[in-house]
């Protein structure tokens, strides 16, 4: 029977730690998770934008606006759990920003067809504040 030495045990432990570390991305850096989040946010941002432009959404609180955008089905907002969600209304244009720990993750204007800003891909973390100028991109 082979005897495992302390040196072998340490090497095996280091190998296992490195394998686990290589295969586990933080949730906010996992592309599959982030692209799904951005896609869901795009649909929500479009609905919010429509409510503000055509449905009196500008008179609602942020929470009421988000709930109205999903037709009062709170389960459709579960993807936002664990994130800070901000809504920006400029005139009749809107944007939604999702952050975690005061760091911007994804930002989307409701007036555009594509997902707008993938902050999670930036080399340096961005502060949890809006970067889109709605008057320019929503012409």
UniProtKB/TrEMBL annotation:
Signal peptide: 1-23
Superkingdom of this protein's organism: Bacteria
Keywords carried by this UniProt record: Signal
Name of the protein this chain belongs to: Lipoprotein
Organism this protein belongs to: Bowmanella pacifica
């Amino acid at each position: 029977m082979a005897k495992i030495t302390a040196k072998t045990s340490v090497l095996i432990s280091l190998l296992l730690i490195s394998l686990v570390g290589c295969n586990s991305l933080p949730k906010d850096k996992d592309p599959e998770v982030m692209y799904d989040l951005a896609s869901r946010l795009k649909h929500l941002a479009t609905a919010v934008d429509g409510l503000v432009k055509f449905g009196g959404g500008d008179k609602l609180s942020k929470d009421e606006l988000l709930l109205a955008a999903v037709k009062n089905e709170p389960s459709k907002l579960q993807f936002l759990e664990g994130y800070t969600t901000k809504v920006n209304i400029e005139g009749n244009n809107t944007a939604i920003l999702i952050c975690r720990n005061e760091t911007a993750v994804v930002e989307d204007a409701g007036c555009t067809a594509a997902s707008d800003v993938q902050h999670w891909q930036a080399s340096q973390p961005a502060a949890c504040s809006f970067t889109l100028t709605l008057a320019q991109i929503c012409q």
